[in-house]
């Protein structure tokens, strides 16, 4: 027995048990090696006129023997001589494929695409096998050789026979244990599943003998009571697709084919809303095929949802979901990226240089953004449906980046316009602003219908300004992070950013000089009344003041607004969180409409010295304003009793 040419026991143990995290990839590695062997022979036929070989003669075959507990991967490739077998299999981390690739670097391309790099993939076999035999016959040689090892100390090489050139790798699987079930690799279904998962797009046919059932011919003398009989048979079947759909020219693929690929590979029963095909050449050459789904998966916003695109290298699956290829706000995009330029790590499960991924991801992000903008501008109905499904994620993208991503995402957002009574973009809102409006007004709550009736919304609309009605919990946080929005300036124009203002926040600056003066006079005249109302409400409000937004007898008698960074809607959302404390309180202000008849009643009670009535009415107005805002009142029983007392 020959010893492995290295610190074999330690390094081989590292190869088998430490480098790979998923043992099922052993089949991917063996098929990739077989593909390289076939590629080498095909390359020889292209460069050596004495070698006559058709590409359709080259294939890879996978088989299993359940009784003998073996899995075999065979190829009709270039094969190995005894010396090559000793060098390639006896020296751990020596890659014959990498050596071939380096010697023929100019020939890499559509005809030849060598996968191997590190010379360790073969040893992944020992994750599942207690013995590995390799039978190989080099092209043009009459001799065949067998390499055999248990993966512990060393290996033997002996002369054998093989019909035709190529290589057979025969794995004798380990016995099952309580923790490990190796029988999963001794079934037709199990092997086909692994081939389709990892090696579906290897460029050569991967065949298997597959079991099938067919009906026997009906005997000529069968009577009327004849029951059909069936027989089992086997048939050689090509398991892999070979040519990936993302490598084919867009002109050669129909949308129906893209749809079927999407539904099959990403387990969706609906066609995608959009298909994005990318082919890039240059410093990084890659192909990408991405899909924007037409509906949101049920777990999109759960902690178990994992974003990412399937990452392939030379048509071999490396990662099912590479998270680095998508920003969180485009987590709904599905698809694949394939590049032969990726610098993989030794296990081919992750990458050595994330800068490569970042470069690809940045370009893909621009493509996705461009496709969404195109849908927004040219197919508004489809875009509104998309935004209904995925718009929340775009808003979170702005909020979670503290507004840094607003330049990339803000123009994709849609909000309901109270004036237009439809969804509009921020650009459309700005375009429709009357002259002199310098802020974008919005209201946040749980429904468009309730928000449209709120006094603070009506007050702004009465001034001739539109209000965006925001009904998602992230809306307020998104706008707080954005702070402002400016429509991109045309050439020669100066960029101007409009401040975003919640209509239930502090001073909106919409009152005229006359209205401001009237409010100041009313506040001065009723200073004692407001002091008494504040005393009655205690810590529930920061202050009681005359409203500059409720300015007519037809407006509501009072409203609640908030000063400071924490709005009423943010308070409501934060207070519903599991770990919310009692200190989550906005700086509430009770604004009184000085033009409403109730204000005269309050003044009369204060002048008559009826402190109990003033306190009772203050509580009624405050709780009434809370209900209008959709916020809970602290003492519903007391409120009900106050209403009942008024009805006596």
From TrEMBL:
Residue ranges of the region described as C: 573-648
Provide the binding site for ATP: 29, 33, 75, 80, 88, 95-96, 117-122, 167, 348
Q: Which GO terms describe its cellular component?
A: cytoplasm
UniProt-annotated location(s): Cytoplasm
The ranges of region (A) come to 1-348
Q: Which InterPro entries match?
A: HATPase_C_sf (IPR036890), HATPase_dom (IPR003594), Heat_shock_protein_90_CS (IPR019805), HSP90_C (IPR037196), Hsp90_fam (IPR001404), Hsp90_N (IPR020575), Ribosomal_Su5_D2-typ_SF (IPR020568)
Instruction: Write down the PROSITE patterns for this protein, in alphabetical order.
Output: HSP90
Keywords on record: ATP-binding, Chaperone, Coiled coil, Cytoplasm, Nucleotide-binding, Stress response
Q: Would the keyword Coiled coil be found if you checked this record's keyword annotation? A: yes
Q: Determine if Amino-acid biosynthesis is one of this entry's keywords.
A: no
Domain Histidine kinase/HSP90-like ATPase positions: 22-177
Q: Which PANTHER family match?
A: HEAT SHOCK PROTEIN 90 FAMILY MEMBER (PTHR11528)
Q: Which HAMAP family match?
A: HSP90
Family classification = Belongs to the heat shock protein 90 family.
Q: What does this protein do?
A: Molecular chaperone. Has ATPase activity.
Protein's recorded name: Chaperone protein HtpG
Q: Which organism is it from?
A: Slackia equolifaciens
What gene, per UniProt, encodes this protein? Answer: htpG
């Amino acid at each position: 027995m020959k010893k492995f040419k290295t610190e074999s026991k330690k390094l081989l143990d590292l190869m088998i048990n430490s480098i790979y995290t998923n043992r099922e990839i052993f089949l991917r590695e063996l098929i990739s090696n077989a593909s390289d062997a076939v590629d080498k022979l095909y390359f020889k036929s292209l460069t050596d006129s004495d070698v006559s070989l058709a590409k359709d003669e080259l294939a890879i075959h996978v088989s299993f023997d359940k009784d003998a507990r073996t899995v075999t991967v065979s190829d009709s490739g270039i094969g190995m001589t005894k010396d090559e077998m000793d060098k390639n299999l006896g020296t751990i981390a020596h890659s014959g494929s990498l050596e071939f690739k380096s010697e023929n670097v100019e020939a890499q391309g559509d005809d030849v695409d060598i996968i191997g790099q590190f010379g360790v993939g073969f040893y992944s076999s020992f994750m599942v096998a207690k013995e590995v035999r390799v039978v190989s016959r080099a092209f043009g040689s009459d001799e065949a050789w067998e390499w055999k090892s248990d993966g512990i100390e060393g290996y033997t090489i002996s002369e054998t026979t093989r019909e035709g050139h190529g290589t057979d790798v025969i794995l004798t699987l380990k016995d099952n244990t309580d923790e490990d079930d190796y029988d999963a690799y001794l079934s037709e279904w199990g092997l086909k599943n692994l081939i389709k998962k990892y090696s579906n797009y290897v460029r050569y046919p991967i065949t298997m003998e597959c079991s099938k059932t067919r009906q026997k011919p009906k005997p000529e003398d069968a009577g009327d009571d004849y029951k059909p009989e069936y027989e089992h048979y086997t048939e050689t079947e090509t398991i892999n697709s070979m040519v990936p759909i993302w490598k084919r020219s867009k002109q050669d693929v129909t949308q129906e084919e893209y749809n079927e690929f999407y539904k099959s590979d990403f387990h969706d029963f609906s066609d995608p809303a959009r298909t994005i095909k990318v082919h890039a050449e240059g410093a990084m050459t890659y192909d990408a095929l991405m899909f924007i789904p037409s509906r949101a998966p049920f777990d999109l916003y759960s902690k178990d949802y994992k974003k990412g695109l399937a990452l392939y290298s030379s048509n071999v699956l490396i990662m099912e979901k590479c998270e680095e290829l998508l920003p969180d706000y485009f987590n709904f995009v599905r698809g694949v990226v394939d590049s032969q330029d990726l610098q993989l790590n030794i296990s081919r499960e992750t990458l050595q240089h994330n800068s490569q991924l970042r470069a690809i991801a940045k370009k893909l992000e621009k493509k996705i953004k461009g496709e969404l903008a195109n849908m927004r501008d040219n197919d508004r109905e489809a875009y509104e449906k998309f935004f209904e499904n995925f718009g929340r994620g775009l808003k979170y993208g702005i909020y979670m980046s503290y507004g840094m991503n607003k330049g990339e995402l803000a123009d994709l957002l849609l909000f309901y316009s109270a004036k237009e009574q439809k969804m509009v973009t921020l650009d459309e809102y700005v375009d429709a602003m009357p002259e002199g409006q310098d802020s974008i007004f919005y209201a946040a709550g749980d429904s468009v219908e309730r928000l449209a009736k709120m006094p603070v919304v009506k007050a702004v609309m009465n001034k001739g300004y539109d209000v965006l009605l925001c009904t998602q919990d992230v809306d307020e946080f998104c706008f707080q992070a954005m702070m402002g929005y400016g429509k991109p300036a045309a050439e020669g124009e100066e960029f101007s950013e409009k401040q975003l203002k919640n209509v239930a926040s502090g001073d909106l600056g919409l009152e005229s000089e006359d209205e401001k003066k009237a409010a100041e006079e009313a506040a001065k005249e009723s200073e004692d009344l407001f002091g008494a109302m504040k005393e009655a409400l205690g810590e529930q409000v920061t202050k009681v003041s005359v409203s500059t937004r409720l300015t007519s007898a037809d407006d509501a008698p009072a409203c609640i607004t908030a000063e400071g960074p924490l709005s009423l809607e943010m308070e409501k959302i934060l207070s519903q969180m599991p770990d919310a404390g009692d200190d989550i309180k906005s700086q509430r202000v009770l604004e009184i409409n000085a033009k409403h008849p109730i204000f005269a009643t309050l003044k009369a009670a204060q002048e008559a010295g009826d402190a109990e009535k003033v306190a009772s009415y203050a509580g009624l107005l405050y709780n009434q304003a809370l209900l209008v805002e959709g916020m809970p009142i602290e003492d519903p029983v007391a409120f009900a009793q106050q209403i009942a007392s008024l009805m006596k």
